[in-house]
Design goal:
about 80% helix; 14 helices
């Protein structure tokens, strides 16, 4: 028994070590693709300032920024900077990209957290309900709900939510992360995490907490329902498959109640694929956050990224996209760790 446990632990460590090592080439490929893709459209100085400056002034700015040097030298300098954690500085507002990541990235992290709560709270119960009422009216209705929200553009869902709950019913605010008074009050207290909910809780003012949560409801619903559609389908399919398994049939034969069969025997096994897919859903949420943040004026990474794109600030865009790629790679590794702990089969 002890030998089997040692072998299983060694297999787990070997699997995690391989996944950890694979992060390096993954990040390297992503950084390389982003760098050369951005250079296809020309150097950032010419793209942003071309037509506004004289040829001499443009050439001087390109030389000052180092964009007149050979492409491979620029690539090596950028690559070495990325591995030191230096993603460059924006051209429009002269901010370090790492500063943008720390301030605006915290807002995106907060939004993704809210959206995951919505996705789990909606997706898991409805997925279970659909599986229990297989091919009956509740199942058909829930599947239709899942397909609609998965297929609908997230900005369209956001606009509908704003029209209903903000414009028509006046229940919830339509934009922003909090009222201006709340934001100013929280910015004056220290230290700040840039995650408004945490800052509001630390302040001890219940009105600030309520204000922050009220502003989070609509964007969290818009982004969370998209992922909830994926969870509903995954839970339903895997729960139906598990309910046909031999160990479930044996539990029923022993007289175990159907509710207990579903909750204690089948449901836990059906959750394993959800953990596996969570890594991909994080990438999907980061992509959806760009549209969600612009719809609700939520000043996260997606919000500033779209503005840098409009300003043709390709240095900022390159740095932010690279940083997002690194975050997705690390998140995928963490999901692999959780998946390996939950399901021993993935390590072999």
């Amino acid at each position: 028994m002890a030998k089997t446990q040692t072998s299983s632990r060694a297999a787990l460590l070997r699997y995690l070590a391989i996944r950890l090592v694979l992060i390096v080439p993954t990040v390297f490929i992503l950084v390389t693709v982003v760098f050369f893709f951005m250079r296809v459209i020309g150097d950032p100085i010419t793209a942003a300032q071309g037509g506004r400056l004289s040829a001499e002034a443009l050439a001087q700015r390109r030389a000052d920024a180092g964009f007149d040097r050979p492409l491979l030298i620029q690539y090596w300098e950028y690559l070495s900077g990325v591995f030191r954690g230096d993603f460059g500085s924006t051209m429009t507002d002269h901010r370090e990209v790492t500063e943008v990541l720390l301030t605006n990235g915290a807002a995106t992290l907060e939004l993704v957290f809210y959206a995951l709560i919505v996705a789990f709270a909606v997706g898991i119960p409805l997925g279970r309900l659909a599986a229990r009422h297989h091919d009956r009216l509740p199942d058909v209705g829930i599947r239709t709900f899942a397909v609609l929200f998965y297929a609908a553009p997230v900005f369209f869902v956001g606009l509908l939510l704003k029209l209903l709950f903000s414009s028509a019913l006046h229940w919830l605010p339509a934009a922003g992360r909090a009222e201006t008074e709340t934001t100013l009050a929280l910015s004056k207290q220290g230290p700040n995490t840039n995650i408004l909910l945490i800052d509001a809780i630390v302040s001890g003012n219940g009105a600030y907490v309520v204000d922050v949560l009220r502003h989070a409801v609509l964007p969290a619903l818009a982004l969370g329902l998209l992922t909830a559609g994926v969870f509903i389908r995954l839970i339903r399919i895997n729960l139906l498959e598990t309910l046909r398994a031999d160990f479930v049939t044996a539990a029923r034969a022993r007289g175990v109640a159907e509710r207990k069969v579903v909750s204690k025997h089948a449901f836990r096994n059906a959750l394993i694929p959800v953990v596996t897919v969570m890594g991909m859903q994080i990438a999907l949420m980061l992509g959806g956050a760009i549209l969600t943040e612009n719809t609700f004026e939520w000043r996260g990474i997606g919000f500033v990224l779209s503005h840098y794109l409009l300003a043709r600030d390709f240095v900022a865009v390159q740095g932010l996209v690279t940083a997002i790629a690194v975050v997705v790679a690390i998140a995928s590794f963490l999901i692999d760790v959780i998946n390996a702990l939950v399901d021993p089969r993935v390590r072999y």
